[in-house]
Specification:
The structure is a single chain. Helix 4 packs across helix 5, helix 8 packs antiparallel against helix 9 and helix 10 crosses helix 12. By secondary structure, the protein is mainly α. It is built from 14 helices and no strands. It is globular.
Length: 333
């Protein structure tokens, strides 16, 4: 097969972009020790289950407000990086999660597409104020590097997909980027995938999808991209296996996960939501503490916002499933 570097200028530019982002991806990875703490967290800490439920909520809000996949992926990256270095109580997760989404939207979306903060709070059915959200955003921004947009798995998914398209004949069937994005978002709803390098996770999603096509030509192109990303076979095999398992569980007739991942609330119900949570008093001064400090209590101890069940995802009245219908209905009768 012809080396990528010997091809047209556009493909060579895409390869250079891949390599440039490879050099930066480690700067935007969540701290693994913090992720491990979440995986083993006691009931009074932010567990993996709590984190996963909040990410599903962010996916719901992303769909409801029409935000892009990039906004969702960026929000998850901010959330994981923050939780991996800060001690947060489950009752404060709604404020942290919505703050990450709002920060991501301001970084990615056109200003005219960003909903007012009070509307974001209202639709999320959270019990905190606009002032609370503003103060939380200041804390998150102060702890993370927000000068540049994070290099994420979506970055590599788009670049790799573009390279593959540029090298593929019109006769070859290529999964749409929308389908691959949906599968990536499903993976990000599980904490374990936050431990994967973004480049590896993206290529794992592509690889497991392309294997189903059983096209040697397509797999050779994927292998060429893998070579330029310097991803070893064992690493790709491990994460591809986890991605395949995740996709199998989502498409199983015994799994109702795709049906659960719907908008938090329908557009018909949204105007009728009560605004009583706007009466919640402003948060007092928020003490801060990181995982590396010796305090036994979580940070944000003085925050006033609470949720009756902070680790559960609100239900939906109807409409708006996330997965493309052909994927969502796969395996169902």
């Amino acid at each position: 097969m012809q080396d990528l570097q010997d091809l047209d200028n556009e493909t060579c530019w895409l390869v250079k972009e891949l390599k440039s982002n490879i050099a930066q991806e480690s700067c935007f990875l969540p701290r693994e020790t913090g992720l491990n703490i979440m995986e083993s967290a006691a009931e009074n800490g932010v567990s993996a289950k709590c984190r996963n439920a909040k990410v599903e909520d962010l996916w719901s809000l992303t769909s409801f407000f029409g935000f892009s996949t990039q906004t969702f992926v960026m929000a998850v990256n901010l959330l994981d990086r923050f939780l991996a270095i800060m001690k947060v109580q489950p009752k404060h997760m709604p404020c942290v999660g919505v703050s990450c989404l709002h920060i991501a939207a301001k970084m990615v979306e056109d200003e005219c597409n960003i909903s007012p903060t009070h509307e974001l709070i209202r639709i999320s059915q959270s019990k905190f104020t606009v002032s609370d959200l503003s103060r939380m955003e200041i804390i998150i921004s102060g702890k993370l590097n927000l000068e540049l947009k994070a290099v994420t798995a979506l970055t590599f998914l788009h670049l790799s997909h573009a390279v593959i398209i540029s090298l593929t004949s019109e006769r070859e069937e290529i999964p749409s980027i929308g389908r691959l994005e949906a599968q990536l978002k499903a993976c990000l709803c599980r904490l374990v995938f936050s431990k994967a390098k973004p480049s590896v996770l993206a290529l794992s999603v592509i690889n497991q999808e392309f294997e189903a096509l059983q096209s040697l030509a397509m797999l050779e192109i994927v292998q060429e991209v893998q070579r330029h990303l310097k991803i070893v076979d064992s690493e790709l095999l491990y994460w591809r296996g986890l991605v395949a398992k995740c996709m199998t569980e989502y498409s199983s007739s015994e799994c109702n996960k795709p049906d659960k991942l719907v908008w938090i609330v329908s557009r018909q119900t949204a105007p009728n939501l009560h605004a009583n949570h706007f009466s919640v008093p402003e948060l007092p001064t928020i003490p801060e503490g990181s995982w590396g400090e010796s305090e036994s209590e979580d940070s944000f101890e003085g925050m006033s916002c609470e949720e009756d069940n902070p680790c559960s995802s609100p239900g939906s009245d109807e409409e708006g499933a996330f997965f493309p219908s052909e994927f969502r209905n796969h395996g169902r009768k």
